[in-house]
């Protein structure tokens, strides 16, 4: 598929402005909220919003509201995206303006990370209590066991393992398991729980969900349980999780359906207020998995959250 001449001109015109080129370069790293872009670019919200609107109208960006926030990311899987990538490849990443933007992006990431670390440190010991405020963990865990299947699983990887509940839940069906998390406080809680459960074949590592450094296609069960809504680039985390799934293996993602509980962002460091099936299906398929199935667990009270379980597999052939 190729672009028409007029569409190509529209794309080049949209990208051919200094601030809009800076925005494209930033969004090549990860999706960002409007206010984060304003902070990085040191420009007003009306001005940044105007540039974003022009880029979106040219088909270069995807815009999606998320509660009171609005996020933007580069389009995927299109000739427009290929042209954007070609444009960015021509730009020197050491250009002083782009380099400064990259530094400001790192500052935004560091601020996010610092706030998340402090939150997890404060709440590590009562993590399950916090989760139970919103949905019945008993129902969720029963559905996770059903979605995972009877096993046995030779190797399981739990990304963002937190307090290690998925490791202890699925431990009886698993030969060897690895739990990764960036929070040392959470890993300390997980180590205690894993030891109490007698799971001697369970390894806990300090690791990054975006770059696990684990071998590709090495696990027949990969879990991402209530992690994506904290992340700046959930699509990248899905890609890394899918990379680990062995032929015939399975990926389980557990998270929330879209909602409007802004206090979770303000008080509990949630970056995204849930995910739609359309969004999740696209990320999973783009990562090379298929046979996607979805389970929805509605809340027990009107102001609660719906938990979704997405499962996908890698073809054995």
Describe this structure in a few short sentences:
By secondary structure, the protein is an alpha/beta fold.
Estimated radius of gyration: 21 Å
Main sheet: strand order:
6-5-4-7-8-10-9
Give the helix/strand class: alpha/beta
CATH topology of the largest domain: Rossmann fold
Indicate the CATH class of the largest domain. Answer: Alpha Beta
State mean pLDDT (0 to 100 scale).
87
Q: What is the count of distinct domains?
A: 2
Spans with pLDDT under 50 lasting ≥5 residues? none
User: Count the helices. How many?
Assistant: 13
Quickly give the CATH architecture of the largest domain: 3-Layer(aba) Sandwich
- Main sheet summary: 7 strands, mixed
Query: What is the total tally of β strands?
Result: 10
User: What is the CATH superfamily label of the largest domain?
Assistant: Vaccinia Virus protein VP39
**Percentage beta strand:** 15-25%
Shape: globular
First and last CA, distance = 29 Å
Helix-strand sequence: HHEHHEEHHHHEHEHEEHEHHEE
Descriptive terms for the model:
317 residues; alpha/beta; Arc Repressor Mutant, subunit A; Rossmann fold; 2 domains; three-stranded antiparallel β-sheet; 13 helices; globular
């Amino acid at each position: 598929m190729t672009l028409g001449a007029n569409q190509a001109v529209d794309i080049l015109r949209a990208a051919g402005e200094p601030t809009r080129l800076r925005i494209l370069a930033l969004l090549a790293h990860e999706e960002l909220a409007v206010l984060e872009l304003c902070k990085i670019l040191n420009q007003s919200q009306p001005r940044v919003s105007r540039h974003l609107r022009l880029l979106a109208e040219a088909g270069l960006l995807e815009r999606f509201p998320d509660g009171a926030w609005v996020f933007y990311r580069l389009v995927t899987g299109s000739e427009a995206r290929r042209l954007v990538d070609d444009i960015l490849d021509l730009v020197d990443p050491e250009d002083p303006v782009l380099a400064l933007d990259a530094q400001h992006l790192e500052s935004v990431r560091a601020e996010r990370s610092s706030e998340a670390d402090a939150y997890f440190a404060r709440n590590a010991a009562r993590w399950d209590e916090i989760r139970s405020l919103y949905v019945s963990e008993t129902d969720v865990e029963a559905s996770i066991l059903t979605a995972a299947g009877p096993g046995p699983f030779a190797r399981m990887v739990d990304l963002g393992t937190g307090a290690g509940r998925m490791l202890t839940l699925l431990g009886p069906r698993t030969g060897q398991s690895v739990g990764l998390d960036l929070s040392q406080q959470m890993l300390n809680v997980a180590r205690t729980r894993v030891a109490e459960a007698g799971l001697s074949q369970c390894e806990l590592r300090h690791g990054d969900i975006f770059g696990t450094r684990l071998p590709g296609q090495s696990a027949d069960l990969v879990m991402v349980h209530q992690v994506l809504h904290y992340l700046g680039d959930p699509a990248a985390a899905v890609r890394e999780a899918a990379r680990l799934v062995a032929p015939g293996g399975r990926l389980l993602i557990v998270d929330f359906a879209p909602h409007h509980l802004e206090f979770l962002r303000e008080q509990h460091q949630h970056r995204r207020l849930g995910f739609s099936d359309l969004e999740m299906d696209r990320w999973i398929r783009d990562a090379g998995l298929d046979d996607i199935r979805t389970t929805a667990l509605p809340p027990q009270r009107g102001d609660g959250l719906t938990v979704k379980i997405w499962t996908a597999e890698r073809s054995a052939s």
